[in-house]
Amino acid sequence: MSDAHAGDVNRRDFLYLATGAAGVVAVGGIAWPLVSQLAPNAREVAGGAPIEIDISAIEAGQVITVTWRGSKYFVYHLTEEEKAAAEKQEQSHFRDFVAADSRISGPEGGEAVWSIYAANCTHLGCIPTEVKGGGDTWNCPCHGSKFDVTGRVTKGPAPVNLPQPPMVFASAEKLIIGTDKVGA
What we know:
- By secondary structure, the protein is of the alpha+beta class.
- The protein is built from 3 helices and 10 strands.
- It folds into 2 domains: about 40 residues; about 130 residues, 3-layer Sandwich (Rieske Iron-sulfur Protein), CATH 2.102.10.10.
- The chain is elongated and about 100 Å long.
């Protein structure tokens, strides 16, 4: 084999390698944007991320509405009287009975006086309005469903109680909706 022919082989090998490398870069350049556009954007990630709520300023008897994953939730700080009344209600008063203490929570080592549940009627999704006095605290204006302070359905076409989100009390002042683990 002559030196000239050996140079052609080396040059040919280099061209094959260079062409292959350029092809890999080109395929990567095309695939990268296609794959990255499948990933959720920051707004979508934030929409499903847990939210932290400072509950230290919410007075007893006061309710706030928060939004998580595009849905509204009531965060209700029950008074001692409301809590006691909810715990005394008889099973026959409710359409979908669960014990009040299973729907009332609080920070570890703290007082369980918080009731957190979805702000959409389980009948057709209307947002109940607050009514003070009597046994029912929430009234669905569209079809007349009624709910108590813990979100349990008492009357109307709503078939089940207002659902509760996954949540955890990180401290006495901080509630996290969207997870059931502290630090998650």
